[in-house]
Design a protein that fits this description.
With about 120 residues, the protein is an alpha+beta fold. The protein has one domain (about 5-115): Alpha-Beta Complex (Aspartate Aminotransferase, domain 1), CATH 3.90.1150. About 35% of the residues lie in helices and about 30% in strands. A 6-stranded antiparallel beta sheet has the order 1-2-3-4-6-5. A hairpin with a 2-residue loop joins strand 3 (about 40-50) and strand 4. The protein is globular and about 45 Å long. The chain starts with 6 loop residues before the first helix and ends with a helix.
């Protein structure tokens, strides 16, 4: 479901794996970044009229609830199948992507899911 040599994935991978204790695994056919829990996926889908529409070049994250509302108003964002009900949001990545924003989204999602000791390590950096 993904190309390991995808340059967009490589940029997401570099940002996600720079976070303390972060690892990568394949979950449901997609790269997933995790500590003790997953904090981001690369690629996602949304169900439209009974069919799944793929978003192969996106990052799926779990933002703070206050940020989620703003993201749902953004045309680049969508509520992903399955994970959306638990507060996750997908953000499509394009040639115009602001990578500092992606880093912030990953940081926020990491803070929502990582153990306190790893968040403290991140804060010490």
């Amino acid at each position: 479901m993904f190309d390991d040599a995808d340059p967009v994935l490589e940029r997401v991978r570099r940002l996600a794996l720079a976070l303390p204790g972060a690892g990568e695994k394949v979950s449901h056919g997609r790269p997933a970044f995790f500590t003790t829990k997953v904090f981001a996926y690369y690629g996602g889908s949304v169900k439209v009229d009974g069919e799944y529409v793929q978003h192969p070049h996106c990052v799926v994250v779990k933002p703070e609830p206050s940020e989620r509302e703003a993201l749902t108003q953004d045309d680049r964002c969508y509520v992903p199948a399955y994970l959306g009900a638990s507060g996750w949001i997908g953000v499509d990545l394009t040639d115009d992507t602001d990578w500092s924003e992606v880093a912030e989204l990953l940081d926020d999602s990491y803070r929502q899911t990582a153990p306190a000791r790893l968040v403290a390590e991140l804060d010490r950096r």
